[in-house]
Amino acid sequence: MSENVVVIGGGPAGIEASRRLRDLGYTPILIEKEPVLGGHLARWDRLFPDGVEARSVLDPMLQDLDGIKYFTDTTVSSINRLKDTWVVKLSNGLSAQVRAILLSTGFDLFKAEKKEEYGYGIYERVITNAELEDWFKAGAVPQFEGVHTIGFVHCVGSRDEKAGNRQCSKVCCVTAVKQACEFKEKHPEVTVYCFYMDLRMFGRKFEDLYLKAQKEHGVRFVRGRVSEVSEDIDGHLFVKAEDTLFGKPLKIKMDMLVLMCGMTPADGTPELARMVSIPMGEDGFLVPASIVGAPCIAPREGIFFAGTSTGPKTIPETLGEASAAALAIDRYLKTTARR
Amino acid sequence: MIDFGYGLTPSATLRIENVQNPLFEELHRREPDVAKCIACGSCTASCSAGCFTEMSLRRVILSLQRGREKEILPMLQHCMLCGKCQLVCPRGINTRHLILSIGKVYGPADQKEEVRP
Fold it and tell me: How many domains does chain A divide into?
């Protein structure tokens, strides 16, 4: 009988690592707190930089779960150390005794209502990046009467010490540019603004997408962080920022505003870290043994990481790390004799 | 007029949604690459005229986008069309051609080509 490995978190990282562990001859026990597998990817419509459907990435993974025991709507109740093993008790009453645990607990989207000055949850026409994806996925962007101008606000809850997130969330710059292009493709008559501090187009083809937004779609980029949003009696939004290149304050009437919420550590991660006695970083993400040399390995025997539990990552980075984590677990289990 | 000792100052805030900008649209039609500017400032840094005058192509492009041409066009008189800005532009914008096009679209009536409505 093949050895069990517990994988906590059923997003892209958890699913991919489980498939790789199965291929290596183990039986992964994949635990997901939500009713479905797939994490944030299951909610997303299209992916940067080429706009492939999220479904086209996730569906083949979900159709390849043979040999993986997975439990949805399930959480971890407790984890205890017993000799060289971990005893994992689940909320469904089952328990497993394993030598290796993979924490692929992912991220939560920053709660936009925390940035009160942007008016999310107060003004109807202020929405989040995830809600815009919902609309794209449903095939229709609600027609607010007379939408002429929309804006994207970059870095909502990222690089923001006051909001408790010092880190750059890495993917929102290119997501905003992707969504701006998609919006212009659907509604070419609408004027689209992006308010940014820096545009971090770090990945392959990201810069091309930015160029396309500028040249083909005429998306207007304003360098300046939105300071305040207010609403008039008709529900239009007034957005204030400094045009820092021009050196003057700027005010625009908008019909819709999209907040690019960043990645924050997942709610449940600190409790799991406490159960297996590993440290959390100052930023709330998990800390590997070596952030450069061993990003998948925890500073504790038998604990491994994959995906955004150790900080913001793109989908391909997450999938790559999931494979690396599966190999790290395989090596650990083969080189550590059972006591 | 009674002097109250204070007066009203017009707001310096840019209201860019109110700017009807047919001239910039015409410029953009002639020079689509003007939209590719990332305001890096390489052109301004390398500008021969910029060492001695207020000439800054980065500022010119931005001001035209914001419909503030009146404040900025006198700068262009200092340009000698040496083309150093074109050599350094990371976005590959044909800056000399752009400057000539700006003259055609925005310049004095006797030099200006007819702008499409």
Answer: 2
